[in-house]
Specification:
Helices cover about 50% and strands about 15% of the residues. It folds into two domains: about 40 residues; about 60 residues, no CATH class. β3 and β4 form a beta hairpin. By secondary structure, it is α+β, with helices and mostly antiparallel strands. The termini are far apart. It contains three helices and five strands, in the order αββαβββα. The structure holds zinc ion. The site of zinc ion has 8 residues, from loops.
């Protein structure tokens, strides 16, 4: 095997390794994006079962600065409920709403 061929084969093997790393990087990145897209947990209004709840942090910025998480309040855009909102899994939303109607 000549010197040129040896260099060429080395370049090729390096290229394969780099390509392999790039593919792994791409796959993990894709998986991370997919995970972010399929967020299955939602804040739900405990009063009407609406998912249109907005998080309201009614702490002064100074309190947040020192790390106080305090009262995490939610406002429902549908029924104006104010207070804490439970996190419900996507598949449990219907069950949660049915349960609300029973009361
Ligand atoms: Zn509501």
């Amino acid at each position: 095997m000549g010197l040129q061929e040896e260099i060429l084969s080395r370049i090729l093997s390096i290229a394969f390794i780099v390509a392999g790393i790039l593919i792994i990087y791409w796959i993990t990145k894709r998986a991370a994006i997919k995970r972010a897209e399929t967020t299955n947990d939602f804040y739900i209004c405990p009063k009407c079962g609406s998912l249109k709840v907005k998080m309201v942090t009614n702490l002064p910025p100074a309190a947040r600065f020192i790390g106080a998480t305090g009262s995490q309040n939610f406002t429902c855009m549908n029924c104006n409920y104010e207070g804490i909102a439970p996190i419900v899994h996507k598949e449990d939303i219907e069950m949660f709403r049915k349960d609300l109607k029973k009361k």
